Each structure stands twice: as structure tokens, then as C-alpha cells.
């Protein structure tokens, strides 16, 4: 870890633990990193690239960005960033937005269409792993979303095999709190972008974030408690 300093060092330690705990990466893996242009995915890309200098396995990284066609496109900015990092990359143009009625566009729709493009591109490129920038706060919010709006107890898996193992989703930032990512993005000068979707600030996920923020004022450990809860299910007390 001697090559990394400051906040990047602490994030890398947490990434390393998540990778080890869930066996996320193996020798010779070809990893597609989904880069939206936000601080989370830019941080993930940077860390996966920097960690290759000292981790005991060799893996290849390809940056993938899906341009959904929103007016505020970050494709050109990301292309310059990818070239600066000297990482192999692909910009994928999607026609889904212009072929869909506005009333049907929401967070689920956007996520589903992005994932579809990522899966297809990863398959074409021979990538067996897709790394997503979801962090601990995202996982916590998902637990509450599923509890409040779906009536079920479930979360977001750090590692998830799909299509009979043909593609595996990994979330190396699973143990990293968003506050650390924000700090690193500022320290590293990552010119990250916010979500281009007009629904982002009024989404249920945003509401969960505000609820958790309010609870932290009376229970500072609320994030860790929610995160741990999905590993500490007491089946004897379930209906």
C-alpha cells in the first residue's frame, strides 16, 4: 500500500477487504468498469487502476460509459479523462431515451437500460466481470427501499453472478462510505458530474438518503447498524 497516500490509501484498504471477502477478482480477469461520470464510478476506476501496481494478481481494466442521450452529456469530458488515465475505454451510445415516452422514464427505467447496454458491451469485449460504483451508503439505502416500498428484507449483493455465471457484477466499494469518496474526489481533483436525470432529486433513493441523514443526528452508528443487519438475521424472530 506504500504507493497510495491519504484518503486513497484508506479507500484501497476497504476495497481490498471487500475483494478478498467476496472473491471478486481472479488472475487474468478482464473487468469492465461502468463509469457514469459521477464521483463514485470515477473513484472506482482510479482505484482499480492504481491498485494494479501492488496487488498479487493481474487483471485488465476497460472503462465503459453508456451515453443515454440526456442533454447534459459527459461523453467528451470522460473521453478526455480516459485518455489521461491511459485506460482502454468504450463510449456506448443508446437510443433508448428518444424512443421512450417521457412519462415512462424513471430511475428503474434508466438503470435497466444502462445495465442492458453494459451487459451487451461486456459480452462483446469478453469481460467476465462488471465493476459498479455502488458504495456502502447505496447498499444501506437499498435495504430501506426494499423494506419500505417492496415489503421485503433484501439488499444489494457485493458480488452477483448472472446468466449462469457468464457475467459477474462486483461492487468493490461495498465497504466504503460515501463521505470518503467525496473527500477523495476533491483531493484528486476528479471533475465529477451529478446525475443528468431530472428525477434524481425527487427519487425514493434520495428520500432514503435524507431519512438516514436525519437519523444519524440521534444515532451516529445508524449506517453501520443497517449495513450489518442484513448479515445478522435472527430467523427465530421472523414471521
Describe how the helices and strands are arranged.
Blueprint: H1 6-22, E1 29-34, H2 39-51, E2 59-67, H3 75-85, E3 88-93, H4 107-125, E4 129-131, H5 136-150, E5 159-162, E6 167-170, H6 178-188, H7 204-216, H8 222-229
Parallel strand pairs: 1-2, 1-4, 2-3, 4-6
Antiparallel strand pairs: 5-6
Helix pairs in contact: 1-6, 2-6, 5-7
Q: Which sheet architecture does the biggest sheet show?
A: 6 strands, mixed
* CA-based gyration radius: 18 Å
Strand content: 5-15%
What oligomeric assembly is this protein in? Answer: single chain
Shape: globular
In spatial order, strands of the major sheet run 3-2-1-4-6-5
Uncertain spans, ≥5 residues at pLDDT below 50?
none
Number of helices, where a helix is a run of at least 4 consecutive DSSP H or I residues = 8
Distance between the first and last residues' Cα? 46 Å
Look at the structure and give the mean pLDDT: 89
The ordered string of helix (H) and strand (E) elements is: HEHEHEHEHEEHHH
Give the beta-strand count: 6
Give helix % range: 40-55%
Structural class: alpha/beta
Write a concise keyword list for the protein shown above:
alpha/beta, globular, 239 residues
Mind explaining what this structure looks like?
There is one protein chain. It is globular and about 50 Å long. The N and C termini lie far apart (46 Å). Helix 1 (6-22) crosses helix 6. The protein has a six-stranded mixed beta sheet, with helices on both faces. Strand 1, helix 2 (39-51) and strand 2 form a beta-alpha-beta unit. It contains eight helices and six strands; from the N terminus they run H-E-H-E-H-E-H-E-H-E-E-H-H-H. By secondary structure, the protein is α/β, with parallel strands linked by helices.
